[in-house]
Predict the 3D structure of the following.
Amino acid sequence: MGRFIFVYIDNFKQINDTLGHSAGDKLLVHISELLKSDKENIYYLSKLGEDEFSIILDNVNCREDVIRRTERILELIRQPWSTDNHEFHISASIGIAMYPDDGDNFYDLMKYGNMAMYHVKQKGKNDYYFYQEDLGKRISFNTFIINQIKRAIAEEQFKLQYQPIIDLKTGDLYGLESLLRWHHPKRGYISPLEYIPLIEETGQILDVTSYILKVAIRQKKLWQDKGYQGFHLGVNLSNKSLMKCGIDVELEKLLAEYDINPKEFVLEVTETAFVDNVNYCIDSLIGVKKLGVKIALDDFGTGYSSLAQLRSLPINFIKIDKMFINNITKSRQDELLVKTIIDLAHNMDLGVVAEGIETKEQRDLLCQLGCDYGQGFYFAKPLDAIDVESIYLSKVKANV
Ligand code: C2E
Ligand code: MG
Ligand code: MG
């Protein structure tokens, strides 16, 4: 039974534009050769547009088969490709439509495969997605979000909340993580997880990041003027913002303008930023670190960064993802894993923050394992600036 998959080559236009169409043609030949070289699977391939292929998978019995073969295609395409002394990391966005469930004719399958592929592109590319009936609704929701961002910035619909990070040894406040909150006038609260990947793709994230940096640094200044100092303030930096030229200059200017000590400012970046852009990102981070700003590697363990890479990153902390903390008191294996991460980080002179601590037992165990800092609902949910002030900062002031 045939299954239809719709493959879009993510970086194709960039290659055509920078190296010319003959390089683009070489890439297409390279991809078809790669697929031909896969002796285990046969692909019926046709080129639909400049950077789009359709593939019919024959002889597949179930969804798992389709997943396995689609992952294989992604894996083949992701192999680095060189031409004219340039090396490229190619990726693809793949939409899947299933015959006969999604459609029993070529046009429907093509339409639905294309929609599923478009969804992958909106969500950050380099992945696959099966067509689902509600996909049309989702795509229009995503488009709605993208159209609303500019207005949201202009009308100050975005706010920041701040979640305390606690020194596990003393129980004192170590810092705050700024978290973005968007209350849309009609749609209500929309989670950052829903729109950050979308606006990374459109590039609107750069405006949002500039806005967030300004709001956070201005808030730190307001607190400073009231005498609240000696704690760190962190901001999440998306991958694209990290790659933007001059993030260090922007930050330096803002910190100077508001008279904030860079040593009390933290940028949280994720591992995925480094997968394709290692050197680029490291250069930006070195610039930021030179200012004295600290850098935390967020969601540690969920991306693909290797230990060798960890050694070369200019970071000060790692934040262990909540996923590893969830079962730490119930699973000996998870406990050992977290202990290993903590020891490894300490051996590299890095501080460790555990994210998503929800119980006293988790806190106690992490403390016992030597974890430095903790964050999570057990201590506090993300709070408005005014509540941070009354609950936490008044104590910081008292301690000074
Ligand atoms: P993150 O940076 O890892 O942030 C931690 C997330 O975990 C936050 O969700 C926080 O509310 C949640 N959290 C903290 N403690 C607990 C806990 O004990 N239990 C549970 N269940 N959750 C906990 P939030 O605010 O929804 O943010 C989700 C993600 O969105 C963030 O993950 C970050 O990747 C992204 N994000 C948030 N704000 C920004 C921002 O200003 N800029 C960028 N680029 N990304 C942001
Ligand atoms: Mg974070
Ligand atoms: Mg995190």
Residues 144-399 form a domain with the TIM Barrel fold (CATH 3.20.20.450). The mean pLDDT is 89.
